[in-house]
Amino acid sequence: MQSHYLAGAVPYPEEFARLYREKGYWIGQNLSDFLQECAEKYPHHIAIYCEDQQISYKTFNLLVSDCAENLYQLGLRSGDKAIVQLPNHHAFYIIFFALIRLGALPVMSLPAHRFSELNSFVEQTQAKAYFCADVGAQKFDYRELARKLKSMHHALEHVFVLGESQEFHAVAALLETPELFQPSQYSASSPEQVAFLQLSGGSTGIPKLIPRTHDDYLYSVRESSKICCLDETSKLLMVLPAAHNFSMSSAGALGIFYSGGAVVLGTDPSPAQAFELIRKHQVTDVCLVPALVRPWMDKAAKDKDDILSSLRCLQVGGARLADVVALRLIDEFQVKLQQVFGMAEGLVNYTRFDMTKEQIVHTQGRKLCIDDEILIVNDEDQPVPQGDVGHLLTRGPYTIRGYYNAPEHNLRSFTTDGFYRTGDLVRLREDGCIVVEGRAKDQINRGGEKIATEEVEQALITHPQVKLVALVAMPDEVLGEKSCAFVLWQSQPDDPSEFRRGLILKQYIQNVGLATYKIPDRIEFLDHFPYTAFGKIDKKSLVKKFEIQQVS
Ligand code: OOB
């Protein structure tokens, strides 16, 4: 069975696969049949509200079949990879499931990604198709990006554009019923196979791809849906990027589809827009990152609006929610709060609705499955005493065993017995709840958007005037963290001012084509860098500069 496993992906060892089947976690269903089953169970329920459209489960499933057939007729085949970089629009879900129905593998990308990330995804996957919008935030034209990618990669045959498609295929045409319908030539891959490649926040130069199987992903979806108490009456507002793992599966859109509820799509997470959608559709559930919580609370307080208490659940995850904010949500706004601590690689923890207020406010919840194995270790991989802070390692029925096509990186990110090194510093309480205390990985969590410091440093160092660079997190009231690049500048007689140099470097990063959120928020110039005893740049002492500034 495993000989057909996606090349470049690390399969679960057979004894674990057997155990996960025996325990009923893996039920042998693929994502295409999952949607089909949802459509049979809830044909006339609305699955998606998008702008002025509402799409029932039956129509959703038919659109997926039409789209799969159209893609097949255009030449997409089982095993092909297709990059999906779409905004929060119903086409996102239709294309995702259509690719799966065809046996092709969606490769998830965020709207904020730019040339650098997309180029890496095409290189890593040899993608045959790319799905994008016409223009995005700040009038960014994805079609220009598509042209550049296509000119560089022969494998990339097809580009599909949502909106003004110019010389490319129109996404809208994919949703039309094909004249000739011969669906028998293709089928979704089998349940134990990799279904799609999810995005990792990453901590290295190249963004890593995460191979998720139908079996493992759907287990996390079903279980999340139960933990979040979703049912046919649930309406989930989706203003976070739809492709993110939180939005997809914790419990996310897929959890909603499983329970027969509806996803309400929005592209603007600002409270003004979001509150309007909540009212219009009588939304019951919302998932947010902590950075959005403060503006939502401020707006609700200013307008004396009790909208937050009208929700059945406000989920917050992706970055650490400050305890005081959690407390304020509950005490001042009567919010039914759920904290979510998860990762695209697998493991998800939730606070449960029946937990005490203390647990909901002060912890990031309990693991999803009793067979999620959790180890908390010191720097030498030895277990720390119960209750102490250490590195979180995990293994379980929906946590990957390796990144896609990354054998060397996998040696560092996984233990020899298959535990994923999350890079998070946590404490496990006696009650089974996890508290996230920090991070050991070289990553900045900018309001839930992850920045691998090395990736930005590598881009900056290619600037001819940059001799040395270190990117570190600086505290930010709204986003939690922002990025600051410390730079040793190679002086020239006609050097621009530090202010100008900062602008030059930000522009430079933009031109390299890194995602917008990776452009350093601040750039500081140093004559000397602090070093550790091992001769590495001492980032900890660089970070201290912000503490000094905060005090003064
Ligand atoms: C989610 O997934 P990713 O892959 O973007 O990021 C995972 C990392 C974690 O390793 C941790 O460092 C951080 O994001 N994180 C949190 C957190 N939730 C995620 N740190 C502190 N507190 C939290 N509640 O971010 C993700 C995936 C599924 C569900 C929810 C979040």
UniProtKB/TrEMBL annotation:
It comes from the Bacteria. Pathway: Siderophore biosynthesis. Keywords: Ligase. This is AMP-binding protein. It holds the Pfam family AMP-binding. The keyword Ligase applies. It comes from Acinetobacter shaoyimingii. Residues 36-404 form the AMP-dependent synthetase/ligase domain. One of its GO terms (molecular function) is acid-thiol ligase activity. Residues 455-536 form the AMP-binding enzyme C-terminal domain.
